[in-house]
Write a structure and sequence with these properties.
Chain lengths: ~300, ~400
């Protein structure tokens, strides 16, 4: 009984917060979990052709159908692919415009420090874990797909052909494995060791060290270090990231910031509007009253 | 004794339901050209609905991972909510601004608003992956940092508010004097709540897209999006009321007091004038948006031309038509301007959510015929319900038994 009432009161207070749209957030100065993990992907090391073992390992780990995977078929590189509900990671081929060399880029969820999907979700289905993974809770998702609209990297996918239990599908950097002290499946399988798994802070250190010691091999930029406020997945490349299918114009602002201004205006409307509107109503009423009085006066005047 | 009362209630119910006919006569009266067309639409729409809910969204739509929102969100939800703004607009004018002139169109406007929102939710159920979880943001899990959370809560609350606002019409139809008096006392409170909720969720629908600066074309992406959506929704609501009252006065002519036929003219001109002024404001605001972000250089691109089509062809043009119609006291012109404005509003919502969205991507979206057909089906059912209620409640006329009762 008391639980019921507590739940009811909880709902009422949530209702108030909901209508006010108040942002109940962590400290503004929170710079992210210090111990979070990440992956550093070196696109100069990935061989792509006849490999794609990471795709295979990812599918097996996430129990996805292997029907659309033929590792020997290199024609998949003819067209840039994107992640979908049966492929949480994909390797695409790009061409370095300077030397016409093939460059292979593995792509998956970037595990943002401040994920747009998490801030956009109306049922809080996404969580940025202290380990660095962005995980999804299928048990609360209603399937509005606003997270997919919000994701700046176009990584989220949906089970459009599932009528009863559709889910948003994404890479979680093998969250369950990380929790058990293991590395993500794609990192473990990579024969060229082009993916390094570790603490994000250390990976950034390592990335810059690589750039410093091989200035001829890498351009001086670590993609994901600052983009959209930083991501757990980081990239190194030998040519401008714009040539490799990356959006280099995303800016450094974490995506949740873009809606913060609107949300902070909501309580203002909720507090000021009622007074203003009641005032308007009273004003129109008194105007009406005045006119009746005037009519009465006029009638009095007529009598005289 | 109880049996007698029960009998009386049953008779009253049957009388209201069948419009005073017996079943046979009632069914015969249903065979009309409009109903035949509606039946044809439903005969396609209902099977499509079954396919949607047994084989998934993918079986009927062209939605994909890059374009998760399409025709249903652009037309049913974004345009639907904006065009249903008439309820709160007219309510504000009559009760809060004291513009009593608009009283005759208040009830149909509120009914349009209520059913508009209701069928927005119906349409949304096709688009949601798991529509049966619709109450989750209210009772299960709270994503308070989401603009969508605000939209969900507000639309649900506002639906209730509009139901309260329209409920006196039901109570009059059944002759329930006491409960009507209670409902009527809530009118001012409900109107004020309606304005607050509408301000917030109409603008929130625009704010939804603030999180996609990299996806929405710069000419449409502006920090003013919430303001644009709010202002255009008021215009959309007003012009939709002009459109709806024009049709209602033709279709339900016999229900309407001859005096109201005459006042409708004046009302239409008043609404047209207001809509024209607001449209001009909106037109200027659109340029403020371009200037604020210094996006002039985008105007001479293909999407820039499309932006000019929207701003000149579907904001300024209907604005001028409405203005001329009012100046020349030309009813047809005002009504043309109103429909033009409504189309312009739909175009804007489709531009923001579909055409200018993901503009740099190769994998674009185009709706399937089935998506469009489902939308047409939802609108048709909405019209049928609207007619059903109008025929059975004092919406377009004043109930003779309640003429001397206060309305708020």
């Amino acid at each position: 009984m008391s639980v019921g009432r507590r739940k009811f009161l909880g709902t009422i207070s949530t209702a108030t917060i909901a209508l006010a749209g108040l942002k109940v957030s962590a400290n503004e100065n929170f710079t992210g979990y210090p111990e979070r993990y990440g992956m550093l992907i070196d696109t100069t090391q990935c061989i792509g052709k006849d490999c794609r073992l990471c795709e295979d390992a990812c599918k097996k780990r996430n129990k996805l159908s292997l029907d659309d995977l033929d590792l020997k078929d290199n024609s998949v590189f003819d067209k840039a692919r994107r992640t979908n509900s049966n492929n949480f990671t994909i390797v695409n081929k790009f061409i370095n415009p300077d030397n016409q060399k093939d460059i292979f880029v593995k792509f998956q969820c970037m595990q943002c420090n401040e994920p747009a999907c998490a801030s956009a979700c109306l049922v809080k289905a996404f969580t940025k874990t202290p380990e660095g993974s962005v995980i999804y809770n299928k048990d609360v998702c209603i399937g509005c797909r606003y997270c997919m609209v919000a994701c700046p990297f176009y990584t989220l996918a949906y089970d459009y052909n599932d009528a009863y239990t559709p889910q948003v599908r994404k890479c979680t950097m093998c969250f369950e494995k990380i929790k058990d002290g293991q590395k993500p499946a794609c990192v473990e399988i990579c024969p060229k060791e082009s993916i390094t798994f570790g603490k994000r802070e250390e990976l950034i250190e390592l990335a810059h060290q690589k750039i410093r010691s091989h200035p001829d091999r890498y351009i001086d930029r670590v993609y994901g270090e600052l983009d959209v406020g930083g991501t757990s997945v980081l990239y190194l490349a030998e040519t401008d990231f714009a040539n490799l299918g990356f959006d280099t114009q995303l800016g450094k602002t974490p995506y949740p910031e873009y809606t913060r201004g609107f949300l902070s205006a909501v309580p203002l409307v909720l507090t000021i509007w009622p007074v203003l509107l009641v005032g308007l109503y009273k004003a129109s009423q008194s105007r009406e009253l005045k006119t009746t009085k005037e009519i009465y006066k006029d009638e009095e005047g007529d009598k005289k | 004794m109880n049996r007698v009362i029960e009998q009386q209630y049953n008779n009253k119910f049957k009388e209201v339901l069948l419009l005073g006919n017996d079943w046979k006569k009632y069914f015969r009266s249903l065979i009309t050209p409009f109903n035949v067309i509606a039946a044809l639409i439903l005969s396609i729409g209902i099977p499509l609905t079954v396919i949607r809910f047994t084989r998934g969204i993918g079986a009927v739509s062209n939605l994909n991972d890059t374009n998760p929102w399409g025709f249903w969100i652009g037309v049913d939800v974004l345009s639907g909510v904006a065009l249903a703004a008439g309820g709160f607009t007219i309510g504000t004018a009559v009760y809060l601004f004291g513009m009593k002139k608009y009283h005759p169109i208040l009830r149909p406007a509120i009914l349009t608003g209520f059913l508009g929102y209701f069928f927005v939710v119906v349409g949304l159920c096709f688009d949601l992956g798991r529509p049966w979880r619709l109450p989750y943001p209210m009772f299960v899990s709270y994503g308070v940092t989401s603009v969508m959370f605000l939209v969900g809560w507000h639309v649900a609350t506002y639906l209730t508010v509009q139901f309260i606002e329209f409920s006196p019409a039901f109570f009059e139809a059944f002759g329930w004097r006491k409960i009507r008096r209670w409902a009527v006392r809530l009118t001012i409170g409900a109107t004020i709540a309606g304005v607050i909720l509408s301000t917030l969720h109409q603008s929130a629908l625009g704010a939804l897209f603030l999180i996609s600066p990299n996806k929405l074309h710069p000419l449409w992406y502006t920090s003013y999006l919430p303001v644009f959506f709010f202002v255009s929704a008021i215009v959309g609501g007003m012009t939709m009321v002009i459109f709806e009252s024009t049709i209602s006065h033709k279709v339900f002519r016999h229900q309407i007091d001859p005096v109201d036929h005459l006042t409708l003219k004046e009302i239409t001109f008043g609404l047209g004038k207001g809509a024209s002024a607001l449209l001009f404001t909106y037109f200027c605001l659109k340029w403020v948006g371009v200037a604020h972000h210094n996006n002039w250089h985008y105007l001479n691109t293909s999407l820039g031309h499309w932006f000019l089509v929207e701003v000149f062809g579907f904001i300024l043009a209907p604005c001028l038509v409405l203005f001329m119609g009012f100046k020349r006291m030309n009813l047809t012109m005002v009504r043309t301007g109103a429909i033009w404005t409504v189309l312009g509003l739909i175009l804007n919502r489709v531009n923001v959510s579909i055409i200018a969205m993901n503009w740099q991507r190769a994998d674009r979206y185009f709706p399937s015929w089935m998506e469009i057909m489902i939308t047409i089906t939802v609108i048709t059912v909405g019209l049928l319900v609207f007619r059903f209620i109008v025929n059975r409640t004092p919406t377009l006329y004043r109930h003779p038994d309640f003429l001397n009762e206060p309305d708020h």
